[in-house]
Amino acid sequence: MRLGLQKKLFITAVALGFAMAVPVTGIAGDTIKFGVAGAQSGDLASYGLPTVKAAELVVAMYNAKGGINGKKIELLIEDDVCKPEVATNTATKLVTDGVDVVLGHICSGATKAALPIYKEAGVVVMSPSATDTGLTFSGDYPNFFRTIAHNDAQAIAMADFAINTVGSKKIAVIHDKGDYGKGLAEIAKKLVEESGKAEVVLFEGVTPGAVDYSAIVQKIKRKGADTVLFGGYHPEASKIVTMMNKKRLKVTFISDDGVKDDTFIKVAGKNAEGVYATGPKDTSSNPLSGISIEAHKKAYNADPGAFYEAAYSAAIALLNAIEKAGSTDMPAVVKALRTEKVDTPVGKIHFDEKGDAVGVGFVMYQVKDGKYMEVK
Fold it and tell me: Dmax of the chain from CA atoms?
């Protein structure tokens, strides 16, 4: 069966089953339907909203030039709150509405939940932030790509920094029990153990959204840890570092790109000082990075937020692939993504056979005087 026909049949089947829950509305005109999915409300909205703004700017740029092959691009924006159970509904809604490609999702768990729906429908998906290694390494989702490096690379950066730069000897590895945080923590734990230079004295998950994290802080203290490696997002990290300071527990706190966000600093306040977190490489020397940031400032009168440049790059990569392929059918778009290099704010990129962007990676940052600064 041709993929285009398969996609149409799947959309029809989904629409029939989904119509009672979500009204299906026709969209006038012959457009390329560009979906954006991620957290746009809730605790993790600061991760998803920058992606919406990136998509708006890139789509406006393309439409100002006449669109692609005479077709204007239309945005379909859906909020998944970074929750897997919501993400499946979000993906179904987008497929029902005839989406051609999707920028998102933002969180790894939500992305993993939504991908089977897009795969069945023949829709290419590209995330600026979902780092769970299995999303690309499993081989299950040939329709999935990302403009951020995977957890293996991030865990290496965290463990190596702890052992060889900080000189950590007793490490507590903490996570938030989610696909992203737990997966990252498991890799980091293995790397520490294999190094032979440090000991994992505690490996434990915390419950997201809990009010009090004093129990885990007490465990870290009792185990004599000199360093915490945390896999998860900023709401939990901010509460943990605040409780650590309240209990006068002075240990090095090293986390991930889920914490490398200004919202963490705003929430944790003075307790954020000295915290380390991995994040995408600094791209300020790339002219397109400056152009994308200035475009955001002009349009929204504010600096962009987390994953903005990776999202801007993903939007460019997706639309460039559609333009080069002359089609929105999945095989054609996938081929173009893997073979056509494109200039973006994160560099001149293309994608390997797994779906990972070639040339992106992680570096370490530290909070100094209320700002994340790259550790040289």
Answer: 65
